[in-house]
């Protein structure tokens, strides 16, 4: 039994469309409502879902063809009926000859909420290598975390469909694992498609509507970045390029790189920025461009905290199984101050101010891959021990690249400790959409006047960067003074003073 895939209703007065992209090929399994192809009209782009589950038996309208409303696009066969059709399709595509029972697809795992794509950073296996079930095959890099991809089954890596450097979406196929006996003949062929794809990258046919739009706008193909399959330019890509070109005069052009002498160039190394580093750069610049950012400073005498920590750290660790550090003191002090100055814990949403009756504390952590900010949820409700345990555990997983997306979302305020690297004073940048971030710094003995006498005290500079659109100077200074008071006399935290 077969099911027809036909052109859906295209909209009022639209009678035809162009088949822009097929996301499946004959022989591929499809699920009900899975996107099969994309059509382009002179007004909109239309996605065509599968009307039933099965196997794509035949593509009737190839890419680039113009079709009318209700025209036949493809045929979907039941899984059992498609067995005979699938080998023919695979032969035509020169794919490895492993039957469905002998091969397992390696797919992109769940990337987390709001993450739609990743970059293949490293393959730990090559085509022809034997793999054990759950053995790590490759590592993906998103704009926030690294994701390891384990082997879903034991066998031999027959094909790598997404080589290193490839950007893949959340439902993409990464590789194929074949049964040991079936892969002997397939392994040499498996690597062949990659060079062909790379070589043919510039010969991809752009969508007809995109060509027409480029001609009308007078924009060259080189000025448009294609987002379609294999880099194909779609109509929306042209519209974005035209809009970018129109707004270009308002934004200063990037400064050209200064000429480099030949002998210096030979000693340089050019490394592509990781997706995480690109995202960090973009978000930090967005914070500067969006918020009215201002920083206020103060200093705190750490004597009381250091004495308290020294007196109880052994007992604390023995009872709670966690080291007593300074981060729990600062976290509790900030939670205390945020109750009095709630706008520092708020955010702007359009023309509204969203006040948060909770404190989800972001703790900035440096990792080999870049800066990440795991969130301690409901920090205002947690004890010193709970905070220390969570900071230690999330800091360790941040360095190992094991944090999930959920653990880095939803923060309402952030603490950044540059002092661990020796920073004496700095102005931290906001973590959007938050309105405040506290910078901690190096503890350094300095001469201070105490009751008319010069004393040597362990002092730390504090910096609060805040969004002046929502936080006034009085509120910012009050917040920092309350943090200072709580740290210089931790008993105030117990008395809620």
Radius of gyration, CA atoms, in whole angstroms:
29 Å
Helix content: 25-40%
Ends distance = 76 Å
The CATH homologous superfamily of the largest domain is called Chloramphenicol acetyltransferase-like domain
How many domains is the backbone divided into? 4
The assembly state of the depicted protein chains is single chain
Derived from helix and strand composition plus strand pairing, the structural class reads: alpha+beta
CATH class of the largest domain: Alpha Beta
Share of residues in strands: 25-35%
Q: Count of helices?
A: 12
Number of beta strands = 27
Task: Give a description of the structure.
There is one protein chain. Helices cover 26% and strands 28% of the residues. It is α+β, with helices and mostly antiparallel strands. The relative contact order is 0.09. The chain has helices spanning 85-92, 187-190, 193-199, 208-217, 235-247, 262-265, 275-290, 303-320, 327-340, 384-399, 473-488, 491-495, and strands at residues 2-6, 16-22, 29-30, 35-40, 45-49, 54-59, 66-68, 72-77, 103-107, 117-123, 130-131, 136-141, 146-150, 155-160, 167-169, 173-178, 293-301, 347-349, 352-354, 361-363, 365-367, 370-372, 375-376, 413-417, 436-440, 444-450, 453-467. The model is unreliable at 82-100 and 183-202 (pLDDT under 50). It starts with a strand and ends with a helix.
């Amino acid at each position: 039994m077969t099911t027809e895939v036909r052109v859906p209703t295209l909209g009022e007065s639209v009678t035809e469309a162009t088949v822009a992209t097929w996301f499946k090929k004959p022989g591929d399994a499809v699920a009900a409502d899975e996107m099969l192809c994309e059509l382009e009209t002179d007004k909109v782009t239309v996605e065509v879902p599968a009307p039933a589950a099965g196997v794509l038996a035949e593509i009737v309208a190839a890419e680039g063809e113009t079709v009318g409303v209700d025209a036949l696009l493809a045929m979907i066969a039941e899984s059992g009926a498609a067995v005979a059709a699938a080998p023919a399709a695979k032969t035509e595509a020169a794919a490895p000859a492993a039957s469905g029972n002998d091969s397992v697809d390696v797919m992109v795992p769940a990337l987390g909420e709001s993450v739609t794509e990743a970059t293949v950073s490293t393959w730990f296996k090559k085509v022809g290598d034997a793999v054990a079930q759950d053995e790590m095959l490759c590592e993906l890099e998103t704009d926030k975390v690294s994701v390891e991809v384990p082997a879903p089954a034991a066998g031999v890596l027959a094909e790598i469909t997404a080589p290193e450097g490839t950007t893949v979406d959340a439902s993409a196929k990464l590789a194929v694992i074949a049964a040991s006996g079936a892969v002997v003949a397939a392994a040499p062929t498996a690597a062949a498609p990659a060079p062909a794809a790379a070589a043919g990258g510039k010969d991809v046919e752009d969508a007809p509507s995109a060509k027409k739009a480029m001609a009308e706008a007078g924009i060259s193909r080189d000025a448009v970045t294609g987002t379609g399959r294999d880099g194909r330019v779609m109509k929306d890509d042209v519209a974005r390029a035209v809009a970018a070109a129109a707004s270009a005069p308002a934004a200063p052009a990037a400064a050209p790189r200064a000429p480099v002498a030949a002998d210096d160039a030979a000693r340089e190394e050019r490394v592509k920025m990781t997706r995480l580093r690109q995202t960090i750069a973009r978000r930090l610049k967005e914070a500067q461009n969006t918020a009215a950012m201002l920083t206020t400073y103060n200093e705190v005498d750490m004597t009381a905290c250091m004495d308290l920590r020294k007196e109880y750290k052994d007992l604390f660790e023995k009872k709670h199984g966690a080291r007593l550090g300074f981060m729990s003191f600062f976290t509790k002090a900030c939670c205390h101050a945020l109750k009095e100055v709630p706008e520092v814990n708020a955010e702007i949403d359009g023309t509204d101010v969203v006040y948060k009756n909770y404190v989800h504390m972001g703790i900035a952590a440096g990792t080999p891959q870049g800066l990440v900010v795991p969130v301690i949820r409901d920090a205002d409700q947690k004890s010193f021990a709970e905070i220390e345990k969570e900071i230690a555990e999330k800091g360790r997983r941040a360095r190992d690249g094991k944090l999930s997306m959920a653990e880095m979302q939803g923060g309402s305020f952030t603490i950044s400790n540059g002092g661990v690297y020796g920073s004496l004073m700095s102005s931290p940048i906001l973590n959007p959409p938050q309105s405040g971030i506290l910078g901690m710094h190096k503890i350094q003995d300095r001469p201070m006047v105490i009751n008319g006498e010069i004393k040597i005290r362990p002092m730390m500079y504090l910096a609060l960067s805040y969004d002046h659109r929502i936080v006034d100077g009085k509120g910012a200074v009050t917040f920092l003074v309350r943090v200072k008071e709580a740290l210089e006399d931790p008993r105030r935290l117990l008395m809620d003073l």
